[in-house]
Structure formats: C-alpha cells, structure tokens
TrEMBL record:
Keywords in alphabetical order: Cytoplasm, Repressor, Transcription
Domain of life, per lineage: Bacteria
Localization per record: Cytoplasm
Pfam families, sorted: ACT (PF01842), ACT_6 (PF13740)
Protein name: Glycine cleavage system transcriptional repressor
InterPro entries (UniProt xref): ACT-like_dom_sf, ACT_dom, GcvR, UPF0237/GcvR_regulator
Annotated PANTHER family: UPF0237 PROTEIN MJ1558 (PTHR34875)
SUPFAM superfamilies reported for this sequence: ACT-like (SSF55021)
Domain annotation ACT: ranges: 89-166
One GO cellular component, as annotated: cytoplasm
Amino acid sequence: MRHLALCVFGPDKPGIVEKLSRLVFDHQGSWYGASLAHLAGRFAGIVDVKVPEEHYSAFAAALQDIDELDIRIAEGNLAPGTGNCRDVTLNLVANDRTGIVHELTSTLSRLGVNIEEMTTGCHPGHNYGELFFAKARLKVPAEVKLDAIRQQLEDCGDDWMLELDE
C-alpha cells in the first residue's frame, strides 16, 4: 500500500469531497483522515489515504484529471518521530496585531515545540477592535516545562489570555 498525503486546493463548490472519496474508493484505497476547510473563499484540504501499489499510477492520473483542483501528492509517514514528547493543547485569545502568528510560532519553535495542528482566526472585539484566537495541538519535549512555555508566551503581550492543558 502507498500511504499518501493529498494536498487539495481550488474553488469551493458542492461535490469536491465526494469526488475525492469516489476516486479513493474506485482505486481500492482507504481514506484515513482529512483536514478540510473553506478559507478565503477557497476549498483547501489535506487528505490521508492509502492506495494499493498496483493502483497508484491510475489513481494519481485520475487526481490530476480533476481540472478545477490543484492536487499535490506526497508520500505519507515521513515525519520524524516525536520521541519523548507529550501532547498539550494551547488556546490563545489576544488583541489582533501584525505579526502575532509569527510571535506565537517562533516562541514555540525556540522551545522545541512542534505544532501538529493549529486553527486561527479573528472575531470582532467589544471595545478594542479585532480579537485574535488560536487553538493548537502541540508536541512538547518532556524536558520543557509548561510554566516555561506559558511565561515565554505571556511575555509576547500582556493582553494574551492563554490556556495550556496536558
């Protein structure tokens, strides 16, 4: 079996996911998981599939025949192991400003924390303009204390309301 990550991007419209799932099914593959979203008026997603080796070429060709979508095929299971890490959930709310995502991600990176999944967005605030929010699933090295992460992130802004949960 070929383990694949399909990166899919294109105009959003009904039937995209059905078309993808049909191709996986038609080529005797299995759909293992997906992260699909409507962002900036577009459809964007990553789909985790396995397809038998003997069906891979036909499957890849069929994906490329979907004219309205830009589909990239990457081999799966290439990520390095996370070793002795623990799962941590991060929730952040702060006043939105230029560079806030960079501050968050660079601070986590300096600490050796891997962001496995992250959702961000903005909502209108009551008094101070836009509020930024982030929710992330992190892999934190065993030697990194949650208090150290919390302190470094809170140093990014006194308006950062932060939750870290194991």
